[in-house]
Amino acid sequence: MFLSITSDILSDQDAVLPEKRLIRAMELCRGAGFRYIDLNFATHVQPGFPMAAPGWERWADAVGETAARLGVSFRQSHSFVYRTRESTDMTIDRARYDERIRRSIRAAARLGVEWLVMHAADFDADPDYDFDKARRYNLNYWQPFIDLAAREGVGIAFENLFASGCHRRYCSTAEELIDLAEGFRTPLVGVCWDTGHAAVAGQNQPAAIRLIGSLLKCTHIHDNHCRPKEDEHLIPYYGSIDWPPILKTLAEIGYAGNFSLEIKQATRPLPEAVCGDMLRFLNALGREMIRQTGKEQ
Fold first, then answer.
1. Which of 8, 41, 254, 262 is packed most tightly, with the most Cβ within 10 A?
2. Is 19 in contact with 43 (CB distance < 8 Å)?
3. What is this structure's pTM?
């Protein structure tokens, strides 16, 4: 199991140019002891950021060169994703949005990422929940992206979601995630288990992780108080999640991917001068959690 942390650690108020933001985050994380970074491409494809501009490949290559210099690797990353109600909104500029996903896939390939995390189209905007409709749409919509990722040598991991509107969102349960991943009939599609999302959705996490089994390719590790719609992204043990059974189950299924801390709220409010201190604490905490699984990296 490999300890990693999201690259989305810097405050929006930090005076770091967009093209330097990821490199600075990598330097801070490496200085705190992290050897694996979970690249959040969702930030870097926004207007004004490098992946939204022509020649973005040069930026990606510079990130790779910096990673090699620092001794940092990328085993998993987070693609640009449609926000909840955008995912099935046909009135927005979908060509531009879809290009952000394609660039996320291509950037992942350039940087040696093994698994790229996606959100399924969740149908939260529909007045009534229709599983069959959601399943058909997602299998059809994602197939070209799955094919592109396969050509680029990148796996796609769909992440569990949670209800944010009047009813359940598609892929809020382990059963739906498994069904979607298996529906593409390729070993290059799997599952990302987000502990915070699962807690908000009221999932029995050990049972869900056990059910997912070998399809589990990525994790997002963070805490919350298990309240509907409150995805707080807290430091583990600062919320209500019961961690020992989750850690035990990850060991039971032989999970050997990234144990990825997605807790940007721990660092983003802080001045950069003390961000490194918090990152060092998170590194120590993450290592202790992995130690408890018996699968130290």
1. 41
2. no
3. 0.94
Instruction: Report helix, strand and coil shares of the chain as percent, to nearest 5.
Output: 50, 15, 40
Count structural domains, the chain: 1
Segment 222-253, tens digit of pLDDT = 999 998 778 899 999 999 999 999 999 999 99
Q: Residue 262 and residue 221: Cα distance in Å, rounded?
A: 6
Token output for 191: 């599952």
Q: Exposed, middle or buried by CB within 10 Å (0-12, 13-18, 19+), for 109?
A: middle
| Owning domain of residue 7 | 2-293
Q: Considering only CA atoms, which of 85, 151, 68 is closest in space to residue 119?
A: 85
The two three-digit tokens of residue 276, written as one number: 């490194």
- In the sheet with 155-159, reading across from the earlier edge strand, the strands are 216-220, 189-194, 155-159, 115-118, 76-78, 36-40, 2-6, 258-261
Quick one: tokens of 201?
A: 């959705």
**3-state class of 214 per DSSP?**
helix
Sign of CA dihedral 179, 180, 186, 190: negative
CATH of residue 178's domain is 3.20.20.150
Average of per-residue pLDDT across 134-148: 97
